[in-house]
Amino acid sequence: MPKHRPIAKKKKSVQPTEPPFTAEIQDLTSDGRGVARHPGGRTFFIPGVWPGEVADVECVGRQGKVGLGRVTELQRPHPQRRPAPCAYHGQGDASCGGCAWMFMSYQAQCLAKQQRLEKAVADLGAADVVVEPLLAAREELGYRNRAQFKTDGRQLGYVARESRTLVDIAHCPVLSEGNGQQLTSLRNQLPNSNWRGKRGSWRTIDIDDQRAEVSIDKRLPFRQGNDQQNAVMRRWLAEVISRWPPTTPVTELFAGSGNLTEVLLQQFNTVTAMESHGGAASVLAGQHGAQVNSLCVDLYSPIAVARCLEHINNTQVLVLDPPREGLKLREPFTSGLPELRQVVYLSCDVATWARDAVDLIADGLALTRVTPLDLFPQTPHLEVLSVFSRD
Questions:
Q1: Phi first, then psi: what are they for 335, rounded to 5°?
Q2: Same structural domain for residues 341 and 232?
Q3: Would 92 be classed as within a structural domain?
Q4: Are residues 158 and 265 in the same domain?
Q5: Do 64 and 205 reside in the same domain of the chain?
Q6: How many Å apart are CA 198 and CA 225, to the nearest integer?
Q7: CB–CB of 166/202 below 8 Å?
């Protein structure tokens, strides 16, 4: 087994605030931890457990008013718990911080994601909306087309959960074949004095299986991390917009380098595409010429958004795929677009999607379709594909 050396000072020990206890896991948090209640009344978040399991738990700290727990012994495991298909999976400082759900069967993971979105929709009061079945991944391993490693020049891998311990990784089962080969190639270059970070830190190495070169201390342009599931998402979008005529005025927000724009152009003659990153907006304009009206707009700036609305006030279909923060400026795009009839919202965060959905519904847009998609198996991450319509 590889050695695991902390490359920064260890966190100061936290004195337990509650005595050890035994509890049944009741629920899951958005980041995949189990939820249980201490006999004294405090709610605890505990990694590495599943609803229905019973575990002995020790307190390791607090997160606001919530206790943080660690399993000392699993008394009653879930029937679908399995040995994780990765030697680095676990909850301690010697374990990789990714793939929080690898200890459960893929079927159980999918069910948890389906139920989470169903609860979010129910909380919206959209009683007539039936959440469609989860679009599960065809492959639960070997799908990841890009990754970021950390290195101190001696080791290369990922960082342990809630720690600054670098875990040396020789193999990662969620990486695509090409990225797995790239990981091996990088490890063959260790030790590497050029990869040493400043004292107590590390450097980052980004890889992408469409690129031969790696990127040091600089993120590569955004790309959806699962090609197969990205294709499923694009097919879903194509089906949703298929009823609209080609001349429909359509605007896309957070267009990036054109992943969804390409789908929109198969249906519509022209697309107005807005993106905050100037480089991505330039790439988008260069790829599609006059078919795309590419605008570099800070979509989190009220002033910038107000200026651009006059150019798109005839928009009937609004398509958005924002980052985790969601659509922070919602009201301008609903009240400022009098012709708006449909919002197609693809979200990578259930909580911000639900927050935004409340305002969209309040502005007269009814939730008419919602589909969960699993982009990252072994993790709690869930994509929400949704449609809001106005009569």
A1: -75, -25
A2: yes
A3: no
A4: no
A5: no
A6: 29
A7: yes
Q: Are residues 272 and 331 in the same domain?
A: yes
Residues annotated catalytic, as ranges:
348
Let me know whether 347 and 266 are in one domain.
yes
Minimal CA–CA distance to 343: which of 320, 324, 364, 322? Answer: 320
Q: Which domain holds residue 322?
A: 227-389
Reduced to 3 states (helix: H, G, I; strand: E, B; else coil), residue 310 is coil
The verdict on 30 and 159 lying in the same domain is no
Q: How far is CA 183 from the centre of its chain?
A: 23
- Cα atoms in the Cβ-side hemisphere of radius 13 Å centred on 234: 17
List the structure tokens of 354.
């639900």
Q: Which residues contact 26 (CB under 8 A, 6 or more apart)?
A: 34, 35, 36, 37, 51
Q: Of 327, 367, 369, 376, whose CA–CA distance to 347 is shortest?
A: 327
Residue 332 lies in a domain: yes
What domain count does the chain have? 3
Pick the last residue of a domain from 158, 192, 216. Answer: 216
Contacts of 248 (CB under 8 A, 6+ apart): 268, 316, 317
Give 267's Cβ-side CA count (13 Å radius). Answer: 20
Point out the domain boundary residue: 61, 76, 91.
Answer: 76
Locate 96 and state its tokens.
């990789």
Q: What's the distance, Cα to Cα, between the start and end of the chain in Å?
A: 61
Tens digit of each residue's pLDDT, the chain (391 residues):
343 433 444 444 445 568 999 999 999 999 999 999 999 999 999 999 999 999 999 999 998 899 999 999 999 999 999 999 999 999 888 899 899 999 999 999 999 999 999 999 999 998 789 999 999 999 999 999 999 999 999 999 999 987 888 999 999 999 999 999 999 999 999 999 999 988 768 999 999 999 999 999 998 888 999 999 999 999 999 999 999 999 999 999 999 889 999 999 999 999 999 988 766 666 676 676 678 988 888 999 999 999 889 889 999 999 999 999 999 899 899 888 999 999 999 999 999 999 999 999 999 999 999 999 999 999 999 999 999 999 8
The CATH number that applies at residue 281 is 3.40.50.150
Query: What are phi and psi for residue 26, nearest 5 degrees?
Result: -100, -30
**CA 319 to CA 210: how far, in whole Å?**
27
Residue 87 resides in a domain: no
Q: Is residue 307 part of a domain?
A: yes
